Amino acid sequence: MKQSSYAIGIDVGGTSLKCGLINQDGGISYSFLFPLLNVTTEGEVIALINAAIRKCAEQAQGQVIGVGIGFPGIIENNTVIGGADNLPGFENLELGKIIAASTSLNVVIDNDANMMGWGEFSYGAAKHCTDVVFMTIGTGIGGSLVINGALYGGYRNHGTELGHIIIQQGGLACSCGASGCFEAYASVTALINDYAIVKGINPDGINGRTVVSAYHAGEREAVAAMSRHFDHLATGVASLVNVFSPQKVVLGGGITESGAFYVQEVRTRVQGLAMPAASKYTTITGALLGNQAGLLGCGGRVFSMFSTK
Ligand SMILES: [Zn+2]
Q1: Prediction pTM value
Q2: What are the pLDDT digits (tens) for 15-45?
Q3: Which of 32, 87, 221, 277 is the most exposed place for a label (fewest CB within 10 A)?
């Protein structure tokens, strides 16, 4: 009988560390969260990662073949370069080496959006595809690319900042320091700000769900704000379709799960904007794995890199 093998996934976010034991079919046999809110040092985060790995390994009913870690910011060759604003330290830190030394396991670390995209590619909405554009619409816009069956991160994995393609010269200020970025127009933060301005209300008291419910209720300001949101989103997506001609564009993030209308509104607009030849084989679809995409991507990376068969 074939012995089952497992991967350990660690998805490091701004507020929590999500951990899980993943089997080869993409099933999560055990998972839990460690909150990061009271963690103040890099060393504490590393200690929590090690503790999480041990906890998962104890639950495995077979061989653990490696650990996949999704981390915010730029990751070059298992080294965290930096850019994770809400985590202490982590500047040019060889996290992969540290974790491999403390656990004696194979380790792969990549940017969290890359892990999410790989999760959808391995087990979700882009299964059986070779060319995929993935993006997650939230506070910002994260993204990843699968080209010819492999993750593409640009030279030394410093690129694929899909949220920061510039869609308006001299436009709205972006969190990255530039202006006119896709993210500054099409993120949920942008939608909330746009809606709050039109309504003359404080954006702090509302979230994406507030705008979507008002939209469903037919409120004029919400319908207009959502319509602009879809227009901006489609502008960025159409540009990416023209460049990469993917089989699938997978849209993830909580707001994309608010109903089938969401992806449909983007799909219709992209059809009108993208070049017919470039978009001929492209399907725009919602993500399927929700907030488990990152964890599953971590597991999927481990299996694709370290499986012996
Ligand atoms: Zn930007």
Answers
A1: 0.96
A2: 899 999 999 999 999 999 999 988 889 999 9
A3: 277
